[in-house]
Amino acid sequence: MHPTSRGRGRGRAGAAAREGKGAAAERGRARRAAMVLVVVMGVSGSGKTTVGSRLAEKLGWKFYDADDYHPLENKKKMEEGVPLNDEDRIPWLCALHDILRREDTSRQDTILACSALKKMYRCVLIGGASAIESNRPEKPGENPALKILFVHLDGPKDIIAGRLEKRRGHFMPLELLQSQFDTLEPPSPPENFITVSLEKSLPEILLQIESAILQGEALPE
User: Are residues 94 and 120 in contact, defined by beta-carbon separation less than 8 angstroms?
Assistant: First the structure.
């Protein structure tokens, strides 16, 4: 074969390979564009803020820490060792939903670190106050439910307790950890979620979440 022919063949093959990679990347971007909201959830001490903020930094996304939006009354209760009830949490969750709604409207990729312990709490993050009224018919022109991927940081209580003992300057005392586990309703189908073991290293945790996002493994229908 003439050397020029071989060169043209290699060139065509290289171009096809580049085109294939480009198409795959484009498909990945298209899948990712359908899901721009991620909630990193779990009990206090599971590493939500660390994981969420590091992932947001890595991806260039916006990050919010739900603890920053607790009203003073909630923080005082927790500092005194009094567990929060639904009445305490619902207004806080509605405020967080409004933040996520705003970012979704502007198509801003966003990560929120939030305990989201109960299924009802996650429903409020998705649907706002209307999620509480489960039997209320949807009103014309009402905003559709947000598409959120919940990332559950799961791990043994003793490991999490050890982390809380080392933490300083936070309003959640170690004594409330059991109440968090008692309240926790781990996500399950048909919820849109992945579960990540917090016994993995931080780089491994970030890689697992990033892969789920970029590969579209947990995109809502």
Answer: no
Q: How far is CA 122 from CA 41, 42, 95, in A?
A: 10, 12, 13
Quick one: tokens of 197?
Answer: 């073991």
Which has the closest alpha carbon to 36: 3, 14, 15, 59?
Answer: 59
The tokens of 165 are what?
């003992």
- Cα distance between residue 190 and residue 94, in whole Å: 22
Return d(Cα 2, Cα 82) in angstroms, integer. 83
pLDDT digits (tens, 9 = 90+) for 67-113: 999 999 998 998 888 888 999 999 999 999 999 999 999 999 999 99
d(CA 32, CA 210): 10
Give dist(CA 41, CA 180) in Å, integer.
Answer: 12
What the block records as the tokens of 52 is 């969420």
pTM of the model: 0.79
First to last CA, the chain: 52
The answer to whether 54 and 113 are in contact (CB under 8 A) is no
User: CA–CA separation, 112 vs 49, rounded Å?
Assistant: 8
Contact 31, 97 (CB under 8 A): no
Q: Which residues pair with 45 in a beta bridge?
A: none
Pinpoint the alpha helices (H) of 106-197.
119-127, 157-166, 177-183
Q: Please write the tens of the pLDDT for every residue from 34-70.
A: 558 999 999 988 999 999 999 999 999 999 999 999 9
